[in-house]
Amino acid sequence: MDTSTRLSLYRTMVRIRAFEEAIRREYYVGKQPVFDIGAGPVPGEMHLAAGQEPVAAGLCAHLRSDDALTGPHRPHHIALAHGVDMKRMTAEIFGRESGLCHGKGGHMHLFAPEVHFGCSGIIAEGMPTACGQALAFKKRGTDQVAAAVVGEGAVNQGGFHESLNLAALWKLPVIFVVEDNDWGISVPRSASTSNFSATDRGRAYGIPGERVEDNSVEGVYEACGRAVQRARRSEGPSLIEVHTLRLWGHFEGDAQGYRESELEDVPGRDPIPTYRRTLIEEGLLDEEEAQRIRAEAEEEVEAAIRFAKESPEPAPDEALEHVFA
Amino acid sequence: MTTAERTRERRLTTARAMVEGIAQEMRRNEEVFVMGEDVGAYGGIFGTTTGLLDEFGPERVMDTPISETGFIGAGVGAAIEGMRPIVELMFVDFFGVCMDQIYNHMAKIHYESGGNVKVPMVLMTSVGGGYSDGAQHSQCLWATFAHLPGMKIVVPSNPRDAKGLMISAIRDDNPVVYMTHKGIMGLAWMAKNARSVGPVPEEEYEVPIGKASVAREGTDATVVTLSLSVHHALDVAERLSGEGIELEVLDLRSLVPLDREAILESVGKTGRVLVVDEDYRSFGLSGEIAATIAEEDPTLLKAPLSRVAVPDVPIPYARPLERAVLPTPERIEEAARGLVGA
Ligand SMILES: Cc1ncc(C[n+]2csc(CCOP(=O)(O)OP(=O)(O)O)c2C)c(N)n1
């Protein structure tokens, strides 16, 4: 892999982390000392993707802005990596008129048609949509592809299996990416899933797959590269599973009592410091440059948060708009 | 009540009251078990199973995969064999991925079998918005379920009813959909409604399914409502009482069967009715109540029926948008004033 790609993967991950940290900080405004999920400038559930940056960076490095991407309830990392406008996305999370969806969607329902991005809070239900987008590309004979990202909990949902079958049957240009962060809220994969790897399920439908261990951004990059190329060449769907890490709770406010036994070594598995060390050891990055990358990311994120806060809230009457086109 | 009695009176949150009802039935009857997502170690996302794993173990308190068609259907199957499963659908909004098991199987098998097969299960699920959880996590949808024949629908508004209705639901030989609004549960992490904590008798008791209760007596108009909106209606009623307007608040508690007699009796007394419903406005509960009065005796009404419901739009995320569509105390008060002045 060339240096500029590796640095670019690093930059993408740092940018996502800066975003998630800032959203986390803003989320707790108005929710302390007593946590109230509906209080503060950013109300509602908040599922952050810290620790899962390698998936977003490695996958989206291969996607063009005319490729489609659907995400699950934990969508920020892939949205940002795919080029969803950070300012308007932040404004949406703050429920502002200038948000991607004028405040109607919120953090689990971000839609950015200019980059063919959408997401859903219903487990696995972004997958059929991605199949349909891939179907449209195929019918029109373009070389666009569609990708769907879901958690490992989604592999037990009917929508997952129906999508795999459709994609294989119709040879759709689609890439399914499973983020295996070990947990579906409080339920470990071992207690929810009868066979170990989602790639086995893919194979059962005739879909080639790869499982990437160690949350390795370069591993994801390589595997997704092969999958996207296959799709662009009209060779059909692929399934990539990444053993990734949920660095924080399922949602903010989750005390994670069910996870006590492993919480201690979670910070040590953080993929960003690990990759930074690798790049520094190989002489591709130094501390100063790493700090500059982080500072740049923070600057962009803080500007997005300022933009959101300065944007007006939607007028109550707007609630009645947009039911029909 | 004496002070001594009051201190002896035990107060629980609605969630704790539900758990107590479930636990008492599980102790009484080996055939009762619980399954759903995060019902074990987590204790239920809305606290509906907290502590049950410790007492009853993983055989009777089963965490499931995220496979609602699978495990709700499995609940139906176990119920057909005579067990009494309590199955949790975490948010009612997720019904989309499993409705076939609910309405083509759970709800219809008894009828299709000509009464030969019973499906004694409880499907418990959380409903409602008000904390900006967006269009896929904030709906009530009770009328969608009530529209489909074969399931009883209960919707408690307070801890005492929650426990008694849970026990009745478990003992009922029919499928019962048990719907709790997140805002009445007394959750530590959500703004608490003052009445989400209340007195709950320790012993086992049933609250009859299909019986409404008069939450407040009044003479000038009847507010027919359920769930969290009962509390909003009571708050409004207290405010208006200071101005000499006395609202009667009828807490439906069950949608199926619907206590039509209680509605007609109250409307017969006040002559004015406001339906407050956190579900969508059209083709739903408020229309059903209007039809009930119109069919029975439209002359009961001294003024046209009024309703406060979610205008027919999905629940939006941003706070000002969500507040504009939910039946807030402000909207209820405005409608009540309009109705009484009419
Ligand atoms: C159909 C459906 N069932 C249940 C839920 C509730 N829920 C939200 S996230 C989640 C766990 C998802 O786990 P996983 O797919 O592994 O993704 P992760 O949260 O770990 O990123 C559950 C059960 C839902 N949103 N949709």
Question: Which keywords apply here?
Answer:
heterodimer, A: alpha/beta, two-stranded antiparallel sheet, globular, B: 342 residues, alpha/beta, seven-stranded mixed beta sheet, five-stranded mixed beta sheet, 20% strand, binds thiamine diphosphate
Give a brief description.
Chain A is an alpha/beta fold.
How is the secondary structure organized here?
The complex is a heterodimer of chains A (325) and B (342).
Chain A: H1 3-27, H2 53-60, E1 68-71, H3 76-81, H4 86-93, E2 117-119, H5 126-140, E3 146-151, H6 158-169, E4 174-180, E5 183-184, E6 187-188, H7 189-192, H8 198-204, E7 209-212, H9 217-232, E8 238-243, H10 260-263, H11 271-281, H12 287-310
Parallel strand pairs in A: 1-2, 1-3, 3-4, 4-8, 7-8
Antiparallel strand pairs in A: 5-6
Helix pairs in contact in A: 1-2, 1-11, 1-12, 2-9, 4-12
Chain B: H1 3-8, E1 11-13, H2 14-28, E2 32-36, H3 52-56, E3 61-63, H4 68-80, E4 84-91, H5 99-106, H6 109-112, E5 122-127, H7 142-147, E6 152-154, H8 159-171, E7 176-181, E8 197-199, E9 213-216, E10 221-225, H9 228-241, E11 247-251, E12 254-256, H10 260-270, E13 273-280, H11 285-296, E14 306-310, H12 319-325, H13 329-341
Parallel strand pairs in B: 2-3, 2-4, 4-5, 5-7, 6-7, 10-11, 10-13, 13-14
Antiparallel strand pairs in B: 1-8, 6-12, 9-11
Helix pairs in contact in B: 2-8, 4-5, 9-13, 10-11
